[in-house]
Design goal:
This protein has 509 residues and is of the alpha/beta class. Helix content is 22%, strand content 16%. Bound molecules: 2-acetamido-2-deoxy-6-O-sulfo-beta-D-galactopyranose and calcium ion (CA). Calcium ion (CA) binds next to loops.
Amino acid sequence: MRTTLLLGIGATLLTSCTLKPKEEKKPLQKPNVIFLIADDIGYGDLSCYGEKTIHTPNVDKLASRGIRFTNAHAVAATSTPSRYSLFTGHYAWRRNDTGIAAGNAGMIIKPEQPTIADMFQSCGYKTGAVGKWHLGLAAETGGQDWNGFITPGPSDIGFEYSYIMAATGDRVPCVWVENQRVVNLDPNDPIEVSYKTPFPGEPLGKDHPELLTKLKPSPNHGHNQAIVNGISRIGYMKGGKQALWEDENIADSITMKAVGFIEKHRKEPFFLYVGTNDAHVPRWPHSRFVGKSGMGPRGDALLQFDWTVGQIMEALDKAGISENTLIVLSSDNGPVVDDGYQDQAVELLGEHRPWGDFRGGKYSNFEAGTRIPLIISWPAVITSGISNALVSHIDLYASLAKLTGQELEAGAAIDSRDQLATFLGKDKKGRDYVIESAGTLSIYDGEWKYIVPNNRSAYNKLTNTELGNNKEDQLYNLKKDIGEKNNVASEYPDIVARLKAKLEVEISH
Ligand code: NG6
Ligand code: CA
């Protein structure tokens, strides 16, 4: 089976986009594929993207071996819809239930819906998901058996192995779930989770600030419910004391499991999704990073992310599989400084601009919400460089299906287009346009960006983010006005009409 597929791959590569191995060595084996998806890391948070204030040497090394995209877009400005779209090749905004998921949300991707992991699995890859999940577990909200086998779960949507946090670092349950069972659970101390009702006798952050020994929530942000490791969270939780994660070990745990997966499967093609936590709140990096950035926990967490990248690259080198491993490094959405805890991110930011030259940030329709770093490296095939091509996460599914020679099954990845040549640096243009979402939709064609009018608030006072909402049409020329300062919709009604028409065609699909 493997041999046939291998021949298929070679043929696909050569016929579909006239790619060849850089040097005429042996025929290409199917590449391993790793998605390394950071959480809330912005365009300006990695030194290879030009900001001078933070130093991320491992990411920069990866970029120097691969292609660094300057015009790459996530589908959404928050995690759940962004990751949903990445995994399914289906725009999250087509559904009304893909907003930020609670820690006890039911599976957002239903087992019958094809995913990129299914696609890899069906062509013989070993598949794994490690780290942040945030796509729900079990058939319905609140339906998880936290003390038994949690099903359906990652294995039902293509991930043979999984080691995940159910939602986010700031949402209960604060435990690792490995192959759909809570790790280290003491059966005599069962876990209970609720997003509605507190558990009698369990202290809450809002009543017990003296128990918040690590981080206190920012005023008015919530995050003042269950207390785990001296940090209050969103949601209520009881029990499972032995299973609780230590926040400072989250990056180590994710990295160790990712490296373990690589070692175990080094002799067979694999697809590994690694969702890191780091810059997402609560930011509590390991002590070896503390104080190293001069920017407090957020900056230190960026260094921690860089360390994870380095560890993964080193594991690939040690396993002798660096050359033929395709790494996609990106972020789920743009950056945010104060996202709910008093961690001094605002006070210590200094000159650092996590959003680069862009306006807005996480949650925003302005560019910084969804303009994300993207680096793709595959030393055996890709010639390194920078690409200004317009690309979106949505196309990774169809493009990697093309790479592996797979036909998309009926109904799979309906919004995903084959952009393999662009992702591999051969095509410099990319998509005609991308669609972004943050409560409303935007369409951007590489020059003009149109944001659909809406009645939502223009500003998120909690996070200090300009959200890009407006009752009027908004049109920006990003070639001349990268910071989206001048709304020129009234001057260019024809361009507004053209972009609106394109968007409507997409919406009606
Ligand atoms: C928000 C949280 C924020 C963060 C976000 C999810 C409040 C006030 N803010 O609702 O702290 O958890 O959800 O972030 O609750 S994401 O990157 O996972 O989408
Ligand atoms: Ca995120």
